[in-house]
Design goal:
Blueprint: H1 2-14, H2 16-20, E1 27-37, E2 40-54, E3 60-71, E4 82-86, H3 96-100, E5 105-107, E6 121-123, E7 133-138, E8 146-147, H4 153-160, H5 163-180, E9 188-193, H6 195-210, E10 217-221, H7 233-237, H8 240-249, H9 255-258, H10 262-282, H11 289-303, H12 307-312, H13 319-325, E11 333-334, E12 342-343, H14 357-377, H15 402-412, E13 417-423, H16 431-441, E14 451-456, H17 466-482
């Protein structure tokens, strides 16, 4: 034991820097880069590094890691849009959209989004850098972002790890970033994916009310529920269109449905869901027996699973069970975030998959690529581990009113437009729930001309599929261009 203790002391004494892995919370490195987008060669500066988070006394309590792409051939920054990008988790790094969607570099994957070797990255010919500058922001404990050395990390958790705490400190950080980069005159957009949609919906109002920073657009990629109520019968029913899309993809529907195009099938299922299924579930155990049989038969027909399975769950089929059940007879499960992916469990029995097949595949491809890219091309050197997912729990989810925050921001700012993007095969934040969120965001209907929705034939990260990478980025370009007011157009009703 004594010998072991001496060895441990020697190790700590020999490698103090490695043990602490310090980061300068206010530092950056800039490189000059080029990318060809839509056939045009674009020159840009890539700045990556850390910008501080301060407490109310001006003390540095954290450093947030960011990567900022700014075209170097643009003279008029006042009219050049700035897109501020967040991923979700809530403990996820801003890596997914960075090197697979909007950024100038694209990780090596096949045309459907599956990992390939050798690992690496290439130019992204679909990047939105042609129409906007972009900054990718990593909240505390994601990417290289960390709390500062010497602070009481346990006491600071409440400042960072919660719906509203997250929004508050990130708004302060954005204010500083915009000031440092001289972008106050620029049209500004927030884009968030998954939990990032909760984040940017809340930020829209926080930036507006606490920092007097007014946005032109908010983009919600695979949105969460945004604090919009949907429990009970509505929650149970809204899953069915996603079930139908997944069953269609895996060819588990009756022949007459299977031969329909997805764009024809899904409106039919959506109509059944809103006009028949929700009213049926509302009646609970008092629904007339023959009517219940009709509903069960239609659900089974659209979901690709047995009537008995649906009946045993009283019309409220959990997604976890569906992922296990749909391909059970073939010995596979389907992915949670993208049900095109298949998994293999220890046994075919059970009510849920052993693991998320799609997430395993994605980490397989993304982790080497981002580490290689930041070090080799952007020249950011550190021994700190890049957290694809960082420790941010427990996360305070109370008082989530981010959907209402976004509605208020839109109502107060006539310039503000919102775009929803969703993949048909996403079972975590499914596409029909995102439509429901858009419908419920503005009950008055007075803002609907500034709300738009786009769907894609892929999953949570729809851009991993090559065809949808092109389509979704083109949709972003169109959204940005349409939401820019004409010169001299006042923000008024």
């Amino acid at each position: 034991m004594r010998k072991l203790l001496l060895l441990l002391l020697l190790a700590v004494a020999t490698f103090p820097a490695l043990a602490q892995r310090p980061l300068n919370p206010d530092s950056a490195v800039t490189t000059k880069q080029q990318v060809t987008v839509k056939g045009k060669r674009i020159a840009y500066n890539a700045t990556t590094g850390m910008q501080p988070v301060w407490d109310e006394n001006g003390k540095t309590i954290a450093g947030l890691f960011y990567t900022y792409y700014e075209r170097s051939d643009i003279k008029d920054r006042a009219s050049r849009p700035l897109v501020i990008s967040f991923n979700g988790g809530p403990g996820s790094a801003s890596v997914w959209m960075h090197i697979a969607y909007t950024g100038p570099r694209l990780l090596n994957i096949d045309d459907e989004g599956y990992p390939v070797q050798p690992y690496g990255y290439r130019e992204n010919p679909e990047s939105i850098l042609d129409v906007a500058d972009i900054v990718y922001v990593n909240p505390v404990n994601t990417g290289y972002s960390r709390m500062a050395e010497g602070v009481d990390k346990d006491k600071l958790k409440e400042k960072f790890f919660g719906v509203n705490a997250d929004i508050k400190y990130l708004a302060e950080w954005i204010n500083t970033f915009v000031s440092r980069k001289g972008r106050w005159a620029s049209p500004k957009y927030l884009i968030g994916e998954s939990y990032g949609t909760t984040r940017v919906s809340g930020l829209a109002l926080e930036l507006q009310n606490s920092h007097w920073m007014y946005l032109n657009g908010v983009i919600l990629v695979s949105p969460t529920d945004l604090g919009i109520e949907r429990s009970g019968p509505v929650d149970a029913a809204l899953r069915l269109p996603y079930f139908a899309a997944t069953a269609w993809y895996h060819k588990k529907l009756p022949q007459d449905l299977q031969q329909k195009d997805l764009d024809v099938l899904l409106p039919e299922v959506e109509n059944f869901t809103t006009n028949e299924l929700i009213p049926a579930i509302v009646q609970g155990g008092f629904i007339e027996e023959n009517r219940k049989k009709e509903i069960v038969a239609k659900m089974a027909r659209y979901a690709g699973i047995s009537e008995q399975s649906i009946k045993s769950y009283n019309l409220d089929v959990p997604t976890n069970f569906f992922w296990k059940e749909l391909l059970r007879n073939e010995g596979f499960t389907v992915g949670r975030l993208d049900s095109r992916y298949k998994g293999i469990d220890r046994q075919d029995a059970g009510v849920g998959p052993d693991f998320n097949a799609e997430l395993t595949a994605w980490l397989h491809a993304f982790t080497p690529a981002i580490n290689m890219y930041l070090r080799n091309e952007l020249k950011y050197k550190t021994d700190v581990k890049y957290n694809m997912f960082g420790p941010v729990h427990p996360w305070n989810r109370s008082n989530d009113k981010t959907g209402e925050n976004l509605r208020q921001a839109m109502a107060q700012n006539p310039y503000l437009h919102v775009l929803f993007q969703a993949g048909y095969y996403d079972g975590a934040t499914d596409y029909f729930n995102s439509k429901y969120s858009m419908w419920q965001l503005d009950p008055s209907g007075k803002l609907k001309s500034r709300l738009s929705w786009k769907g894609y034939r892929s999953g949570h990260m729809m851009y991993l599929r090559k065809e949808d990478l092109v389509k979704s980025n083109d949709d972003l370009r169109e959204f940005i261009k349409k939401s820019l007011p004409k010169a001299g157009q006042p923000a008024m009703y």
